[in-house]
Amino acid sequence: MESFGARLHRAVAERGPLCVGIDPHPGLLARWGLDDDVHGLERFADTVVEALGDRVAVVKPQSAFFERFGSRGVAVLESTIRQLRLAGSLVLLDVKRGDIGSTVAAYASAYLEPSSPLHVDAVTVSPYLGVGALAPMFDMATAQGGGVFVLALTSNPEGAAVQRARTAGGRTVAQVVIDEISQLNAGAQPLGSVGLVVGATIGETGHDLAAVNGPLLAPGLGAQGASAADLRVVFGSALPAVLPAYSREVLAAGPDVAALRAAADRVLADCRAALTGS
Ligand SMILES: O=C(O)c1cc(=O)[nH]c(=O)n1[C@@H]1O[C@H](COP(=O)(O)O)[C@@H](O)[C@H]1O
Question: Catalyses which reaction (predicted)?
Fold first, then answer.
């Protein structure tokens, strides 16, 4: 079975290095002229799928905005996932799960087992119960060709107090996460299937990402204040592995399908220039 790392590598080569989030904030629903209810949610998600599903490498639905509407919102999420996969984009579900290992096994089956209604290509996870507790997720990803993105250095200002705290050995908590994931990806070709999340907002932090050999999801661009030009500062020599992620910056262009496509094209051009230095 083809690995997620290989599938992502191909998708980025074909469609360019870009992940667009589906984050139907109440304010965006209003801006699009939609009601803040499950019908507005469905219309919003369907429009993003129509505009971007056949052209963006990775689409990242934010589960929270679907869960707000209970089981009917989750049904919209299931349908959004199916439509995105049919349209050919990889689906990264942003749920930031993390728990003791036996429970992580259930999350792994919910998101990475092909028979699950919420089956996606990859999922975000939190390592704060220990990277080792996530082993069932990594195992399921390996078995099913799925991907996992582990929070390392998040884009929000509150993250630094925990993530940059020093462990007894002198490394930061984030560096321990980075090093453990680097070991999991060692030797993978063309790219490992376990990625990290590193915010584009964090500036130069001195963390060593050189050995990760997996994708580096970079949220925080646009609405949170970072620009594509900041990627060089944050990622340095690890730039080729960066997958820039935008939500509100692109979504604010809707509901017009052509305008959404133009916004995605614009940020993709910015990212290409920043990642290649051209
Ligand atoms: O895992 C994420 O995607 C994520 C990690 C992080 O450090 N910061 C972060 O903003 N995110 C998510 O990325 C999206 C950012 O949205 P915008 O700020 O609108 O581009 C939200 O869905 C966040 O939950």
Answer: orotidine 5'-phosphate + H(+) = UMP + CO2
What would the mean pLDDT of 132-148 be, rounded to a whole number? 98
Tell me how far CA of residue 177 lies from CA of 122, 153, 232, in angstroms: 18, 10, 21
pLDDT for the residue numbered 239: 96
Best residue for ligand 1 mutational test, from 18, 58, 224 (most atoms within 8 Å of Cβ): 224
Kindly report the pTM of this predicted structure.
0.98
Catalytic residue among 96, 171, 232, 248: 96
Question: Residue range 231-248: average pLDDT?
Answer: 96
Q: Residue of the nearest CA to atom 8 in ligand 1? A: 155
**Ligand 1, closest atom to CA 245?**
20
Annotated catalytic residue 60: no
Spatial distance between the Cα atoms of 254 and 233, rounded to a whole number of angstroms? 31
Question: What percent of the chain is modeled with pLDDT above 70?
Answer: 100
Q: Please state, in angstroms and as integers, the Cα–Cα distance from residue 133 to each residue in 105, 128, 129, 275, following that order.
A: 9, 9, 6, 33
Compute φ and ψ for 113, nearest 5 degrees.
Answer: -85, 125
Specify the pLDDT at position 277. Answer: 74
Q: Map tokens 């999922």 to a residue.
A: 123
Given this structure, which CATH class describes domain 4-276? alpha beta
